[in-house]
Amino acid sequence: MHRYGYKLAALGLAAAIVGVIALSVASFNQVFVARVPITVIAERVGLVMDPGARVKMAGVTVGSVESITPTDDATAQLSLSIDPEALESIPSNVDVAITSNTAFGAKFVSLSSPEQPSSARLAAGATIDASRVTVELNTVFEKLTAVLRTVDPGKLDSTLGALSTALQGRGERLGVALEQADSSLLEFNTAREALDHVLTDLPAVTQTYRDAVLDLMDTLDSLTTTGTTVLDEQQNLDLLLLNVIGVARTGEDVLGENADGIDTVLSLLRPTTALLEEYSPVIPCMFHGLQESKKIGDGAYNGQPGIKMSIGLIAGTEPYRYPDDLPKVAATGGPQCMGLPLRDPNINAPYLVTDTGVNPFAPERQPNGGQPMNTVPDLMSYLFGTEIR
Fold first, then answer.
1. What is the DSSP letter of 226?
2. Within a 10 A sphere around the Cβ of 92, how many other Cβ atoms?
3. Which of 7, 115, 193, 362 is surrounded by the fewest CB atoms within 10 Å?
4. pTM over 0.70
5. Per-domain residue ranges for the chain?
6. Which candidate, 54, 38, 52, places its Cα nearest to that of 100?
7. How far is residue 335's CA from residue 276's CA, in Å, rounded to a whole number?
8. Are the beta carbons of 47 and 107 closer than 8 angstroms?
């Protein structure tokens, strides 16, 4: 009885040890941890990517690779299992890369936030495209071997020899050229912002040209018609140009012979043109006044025999006296419209007093010196002044 008890105890101990080991393995493989499935599509995964590889975000492990399955379109499908708590901090537009720490190291899936992360979080069952896959050393060797198989060793030796000869003794010049190229690239980088603005505005400019293409085509058609007309009238055009040349030569001869006279005329006209320029504001007043006078005069001249006039008599002034009335050229005052273009017919036009030696309205030129008279003058004195008698 004791023998069977020991056997059962030993069997129970062995079963307990196996259970502990199984639980440890399951715990190590995170069998009891809830995971969220995510699918990654990559153009390739390389030779050192195996199931169980880590999935990292900012250097922290957030999951693992469950399986790797090739697809019909020559890509690889990676099934990932992600920690649900970590999934809450992963944006939906996360960048995915398959990378490794060294050229020979095992690969892992690296998650990184983009420059503008989305506010939405990565959802369970989402499918993401891997942006890049680290190149493995065997891939480099494979491509290099393919290149070496294609290249002829003799031609490669000749090319390298010619290149060595061309560069021999020119290292300093090559260095200067590289420095200049570096400076040019730096200037280009400085002007890149302006170039970006130009490229940004380019679509709007091309759209403008696109909208105007029909008008441009119409213009080109019109130019074609014009060109055809010019071609048809080629002889007449040649004759016209010859005549223009003849006129130009004749004008050159005339101007050449009369150059001194023309210079004299222009010099003499300078004071006159200067005076006209000074009094140019009066010219519009005069023409507008004439136009208004025509409107008023049409009623006096048209549609009837004779002329309608309003006539009055004014007092005469003293006749010319020497030397008091000698003329003077000293009038000043500048341009004045004197009420033009519209004048009130019931008001006498003002008289501009200037220093010309003559002022018919001066008091001393009025009858009786401008003073009230005690007697009424006779008609001759009233009309022609007292000196005429």
1. H
2. 13
3. 115
4. no
5. 33-139, 173-221, 233-302, 314-332+356-389
6. 54
7. 10
8. no
- Chain centre distance of CA 82: 51
CA 176 – CA 259 distance, rounded (Å): 63
Query: What is each CA distance from 77 to 23, 68, 69, in whole angstroms?
Result: 30, 6, 5
Beta bridge partners of 81: 37, 64
Burial string for 150-167 (b: 16+ CB within 10 Å, else e) reads eeeeeeeeeeeeeeeeee
Q: Which residues contact 368 (CB under 8 A, 6 or more apart)?
A: 386
Helices of type H across 127-278: 137-150, 153-167, 171-190, 192-211, 213-232, 234-257, 259-278
Tell me the C-alpha distance between 80 and 36, whole Å: 8
C-alpha span between 143 and 150 (Å, rounded): 11
Q: Which two tokens stand for residue 19?
A: 């259970």
Q: Please list the residues that pair with 54 across neighbouring strands.
A: 64
Q: How many residues does the chain have?
A: 389
Taking CA 352 as the corner, what is the angle to CA 349 and CA 355, rounded to the nearest 5 degrees? 160
Which residues in 101-152 belong to E strands, given as ranges? 107-112, 127-129, 132-133
**What does the pLDDT profile of the chain (389 residues) look like in tens digits?**
556 666 666 677 777 777 777 666 665 555 555 677 888 887 776 666 778 788 888 888 888 888 888 877 777 788 888 887 777 788 878 888 877 776 666 778 888 888 888 888 777 778 877 765 555 555 666 667 777 777 777 787 888 888 888 878 888 888 888 888 888 888 888 888 888 888 888 888 888 888 888 888 888 888 888 888 888 888 888 888 888 898 888 888 888 888 888 889 889 999 999 988 988 888 888 899 888 888 877 776 777 777 777 777 666 666 777 777 788 887 777 888 888 888 777 777 777 888 887 777 776 666 555 555 555 556 666 555 555 44
Find tokens 């009066």 and name the residue: 282
d(CA 1, CA 6): 9
Q: Which residues contact 384 (CB under 8 A, 6 or more apart)?
A: 316, 319
